[in-house]
Write a structure and sequence with these properties.
Elements (H helix, E strand, L loop, with lengths): L1 H8 L8 H19 L4 H23 L14 H5 L2
Length: 84
């Protein structure tokens, strides 16, 4: 988009796209919830679906050269990716 182009020119663009960042934040919230509520199978499924979306989006962004080929989503390191 035009906004992203301007941000890249000014070196202010985020390291990962906003939609991917939002999905990772959702996965972090679900993961924290599941640590407390271990038998919550509905949200366990929601976490599986969210992480599947993350993997598909990462594959797309790698193909479009938005993310480097070495970028990998890891559930345990996800909080470090988002916390800035």
């Amino acid at each position: 988009t035009k906004i992203t182009k301007v941000l890249r020119e000014e070196n202010k663009a985020p390291s990962i796209p906003e939609d991917l960042e939002n999905l990772i934040e959702k996965a972090i919230r679900l993961n924290k919830h599941l640590k407390v509520h271990k038998k919550d199978f509905h949200n366990r499924r929601a976490l599986q679906l969210t992480e599947s979306k993350i993997r598909r989006l990462v594959r797309y962004y790698k193909r479009e050269n938005v993310l480097p080929e070495t970028w990998v989503y890891d559930r345990d390191k996800a909080e470090m990716l988002i916390s800035k």
